[in-house]
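Researcher: Let's run the pair from yesterday's discussion. Sequence first, then tokens, for each.
Model: Starting with the first of the pair.
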Amino acid sequence: MQATVKWVDGRLFLGESGSGHSVVMDGPPDHGGRNMGLRPMEMLLLGVGGCSSYDVVDILQKGRHDVTGCVAELTAERADEVPSVFSKIHLHFVVTGRNLKEAGVERAVKLSAEKYCSASIMLSRGGVEISHDFEIRELA
């Protein structure tokens, strides 16, 4: 896997993935930025949510569950001192579908957390306390 991050000006950076996709990162005005993009730590948090959501949906679909939606709501706490690393991350999944069973969704979330989500497993091994829960919404 490869990527490049190019400084544009101020605190504005352009990241490009090896697959050719780009993202803008910037800082807040009080730190020399213009607030024109995501903060790098926000990108890291989104990466955890994206990685785990990918797993949950994939596991449910492979299990032939009738899943129609999955939203991961993430909250994080950071250390007060520098480096201001994540100390806690909580993922709350809102899974929508037809006749979804609690045991199936619970299994998908657990497998992602313990076996498949490289991003969250890497951070938890680095000392970040990561927790998960979920709710199921029946599709009307």
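Model: Moving on to the second of the pair.
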Amino acid sequence: MDAGIGDSVLMDDQELVDLAIEARKRAYCPYSRFPVGAALLCADGTVVTGVNVENAVNGLSLCAERVALFKAVSEGKRDFVKIAVACGGDHCRPCGACRQVLFEHAPDIEILMGNPK
């Protein structure tokens, strides 16, 4: 789900977390059963969402954060403000691979963690 919210509209943190929580429902995680959703706020006000997509070969799986970022980049977005990540556990932080990718594309990005049970 991509939501264009306009250049002049500010999205508050809870709204972005809510979009990540909603995206989480679409995760494909038959192996870990650990759905994760992400909502990436672009500088132009666009929100791009992503979910974790697993594969039987674990190394071929992708995290929600990278799915959202890669999707945004593929749509021509290059400037990012913040990303919200939502999972069902207490420890829903971007993994090392996601941190590296986020740092390369948005070294000053704010990361919000929403962990509804």
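Researcher: Give me one sentence on the second I can quote.
Model: The chain has one domain: 2-95+109-114.
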